[in-house]
Every structure is written in structure tokens, then in C-alpha cells.
Design goal:
The complex is a heterodimer of chains A (191) and B (176). Chain A is built from 8 helices and no strands. Chain A is mainly α and 191 residues long. Chain A folds into 2 domains: 97 residues, Rna Polymerase Sigma Factor, Chain: A; 94 residues, Arc Repressor Mutant, subunit A (Orthogonal Bundle), CATH 1.10.10. With 176 residues, chain B is an all-alpha fold. In chain B, 81% of the residues lie in helices and 0% in strands. Chain B is elongated. In chain B, 17% of the residues are buried. At the A-B interface, helix 2, helix 3, helix 5, helix 6 and helix 8 of A face helix 1, helix 2, helix 4 and helix 5 of B. Zinc ion (ZN) binds next to helix 1 and helix 4 of chain B.
């Protein structure tokens, strides 16, 4: 066993496409934790997150030939998982009415907090992980996705740029806006 | 209070933290943060948020994740196998039923009205109706072909057809 060379993800999916089911299991082992962590940040519920990641792998299993070697395997699977998580979230948000009135703005409408008022009330460095997770959950989708990819999964700008199919420069500016939005949301939640 | 300045400075925060700003912009941010307490507070708060965020304990899949997944895949594979078997036997049975119905029905048609039964338009309408009644796409072409060749045979089988007329009407209308 220890003699076996470590195969890349792309080699494993190629082997699976050629009919090797063990290669699929190896990919599941490599990605299950990462993906559960990823999807959990969207859905904020462990059972749902696991379900969604199971769906992700089932999709990979059923549509193995949809993968083409032009993309990294991780990009492909993150895209599938992210799409599933976000559409589940949209379903949920349609069902729920949010109490926060400012959740309707979209990606383009971000304005920094007016520095003239309110900011004094922020208590520095005292946000608990749980509060931050709630704030991420409450963020509008584009902000939420970018925060999770960048600040939780810690993917590179380049990788995020392929997953979301937007230019690198846009990724960077969205990361910045999303972080400010998160910080702003936290200060609202705090009040 | 220069609001535009503040907005511009806030836009630089990520790259400022990553040390990837061109030095002249970095100097601008430094200078602004030194003089503007509001931006400084936002920046400090943001840094705290990011620190917590980057140190969040990650969650993991439960231990039976893989076994649950693999058994779901087994179920899926069984289902698709059974679906294949079911589909192929279903269309065979349906195909035989249509074929029998067509042969008999064409026989009746010829008996009652030999001329109109030979009009291709009517015949294909009938075939379409049959298809709508029973969803058996792939067998249709074969059946129409074989029923055409059977049409000649059915003329010689007129007597037998008359005898089975009631039965065959039931057969055809029973498929509605
Ligand atoms: Zn300022």
C-alpha cells in the first residue's frame, strides 16, 4: 500500500471515468470533510450539509463523464456543491421572512458604513465564531459565497475566479466588499 | 469628513492586509488610517472578524458518511438496472399488443370500407392514435411496417377476422 504513488485528483477521476470505482471512493475520502465544511457554512445545519454533500457525490457518480480535464477536479466539485447549497438556501429564504430589513440589496449596491455615526458602538475583536456564522448566513448570496470560498475554504483568488467564472480583479473587489458587508452585518446584529 | 476618501480607503482594505497594494496607495491608506478614526475602527473591527473567521474550527463529515453514500449508490444502480429490465419487457409486451390490435383492426377496416382503409393518411392517423394510447415509440415503426405486410394476409383471413370482430373491438377500445 505505501508503495503506491499518490495519484492526483485528476488522475483519479480519469480512472473512475474508465470504470475504476475505487478511484471514486478515494475522491470521496479526499473531499468529504472539505465539502461538508464548505456546505455547512451556507446551510448552518450539519444534517442538511451532509445530505447536500451526498447529493454532490451522487452527481459526480452519475455524471462522471461531464468532467473534462480542462478544469481542476476541485473546481468542478466545489462548483457542484456550491450550486446545490445555494439553491437549497434560496428555497429556504423563499420560505422564511427575514427580520432584517437590509437583506434585499444586491452585489452592486454596497456602500461603506457612514463613518459619521454608529461605528463607535462596535466592540472590537469580540465576535464569537457562532455570531460570525449567523452573520454569514444572513448575508446576501454573492457576498456569502465569496466569504465562504475565500475566508473559510481559503481558496486562492485564481481558484475562486474559475469556480465563479468571474475575472480575478472582480474576485478581489468582491472579497473586499463582502468582508465589509459582513463586518457591517455583525455590527447590526450586535445592536 | 471626506466620505469619498473613506469609501476609497475601505475598498483597499483586503489588499492592504495582504500587502499587495502599490506602495503609493499603501501610503495613502496609512495616512488616512492615521487621521480618520472611523476608518481605523472599521479596519480594526474587520481584522478581528477575519481573525475569528480564519480560526473557526472546521466541521467534518460523520464517520458513516462514505458507507451511507456507497449504499445510496448501490440502490441507485439497482434501480437503474431494474428500470432497464422493466422498460424493455414493458415495450415488448406493449409492442405485441399493438401489433395484434393493428392486424385485427386493419382487417376490420378492409372489411367495412376497403378503399378508405388503403388511404395512407387515415392509416397513419390511426397509427398516431395508437402511439398516443400506448407509449411505445421504438416499436411503432416496426409495427407499422409489419402491419402493412400483414394487410394482404388479413384479406385472406377475412372469415377469421369476422369471427373475432367483437373481441378485437374490445381489444382496441380497451386501450383507451
Ligand atoms: Zn475615513
Amino acid at each position: 500500500m505505501s508503495e503506491k504513488p499518490i495519484l492526483t485528483d485528476e488522475q483519479l477521476i480519469a480512472a473512475f471515468q474508465a470504470g475504476d470505482e475505487h478511484a471514486f471512493v478515494e475522491l470521496v475520502d479526499r473531499y468529504k470533510d472539505r465539502l461538508v465544511n464548505f456546505v455547512y457554512r451556507f446551510l448552518h445545519d450539519m444534517t442538511d450539509a451532509e445530505d447536500m454533500v451526498q447529493e454532490t457525490f451522487l452527481k459526480v457518480y452519475k455524471n462522471k463523464h461531464a468532467y473534462r480535464e480542462i478544469a481542476k477536479f476541485s473546481t468542478w466539485i466545489y462548483t457542484i456543491a456550491g450550486n446545490l447549497a445555494r439553491s437549497e438556501l434560496r428555497k429556504r429564504k423563499r420560505r422564511k421572512t427575514y427580520t432584517m430589513s437590509d437583506l434585499s440589496f444586491d452585489d452592486n449596491e454596497f456602500t461603506p458604513v457612514d463613518p459619521g455615526k454608529g461605528t463607535e458602538a462596535i466592540v472590537f475583536n469580540s465576535y464569537a465564531g457562532e455570531e460570525i456564522m449567523k452573520a454569514i448566513y444572513a448575508l446576501p448570496e454573492p457576498f456569502q459565497t465569496i466569504i465562504i470560498l475565500r475566508d473559510i475554504q481559503e481558496l486562492s483568488y485564481e481558484h475562486i475566479s474559475t469556480i465563479l467564472d468571474i475575472p480575478m480583479g472582480t474576485v478581489k473587489s468582491r472579497v473586499n466588499r463582502a468582508r465589509l458587508k459582513l463586518q457591517e452585518t455583525l455590527s447590526y446584529l450586535k445592536e | 469628513m471626506q466620505n469619498t476618501d473613506c469609501a476609497y480607503i475601505c475598498e483597499q482594505f483586503t489588499e492592504y492586509q495582504e500587502n499587495s497594494l502599490p506602495s503609493e496607495i499603501r501610503a495613502k491608506v496609512d495616512a488616512h488610517l492615521a487621521s480618520c478614526s472611523s476608518c481605523r475602527e472599521i479596519f480594526q473591527s474587520l481584522s478581528g472578524v477575519l481573525e475569528t473567521l480564519h480560526n473557526l474550527p472546521s466541521v467534518k463529515a460523520t464517520t458513516d458518511f462514505t458507507s451511507t453514500l456507497l449504499s445510496r449508490i448501490d440502490t441507485l444502480n439497482q434501480e437503474t438496472t431494474w428500470q432497464r429490465i422493466y422498460h424493455s419487457s414493458y415495450s415488448k409486451v406493449a409492442g405485441y399488443a399493438i401489433a395484434a390490435g393493428l392486424i385485427v383492426a386493419i382487417g376490420i377496416n378492409i372489411l367495412i370500407d376497403p378503399i378508405s382503409s388503403m388511404k395512407p393518411g387515415l392509416k397513419s392517423n390511426f397509427a398516431v392514435e395508437q402511439t398516443n394510447q400506448i407509449q411505445s415509440d421504438e416499436s411503432l415503426a416496426e409495427i407499422t411496417d409489419s402491419s402493412a405486410s400483414h394487410a394482404a394476409d388479413s384479406l385472406t383471413l377475412q372469415n377469421a377476422t369476422i369471427n373475432s370482430q367483437n373481441q378485437s373491438v374490445q381489444l382496441v377500445s380497451g386501450k383507451k
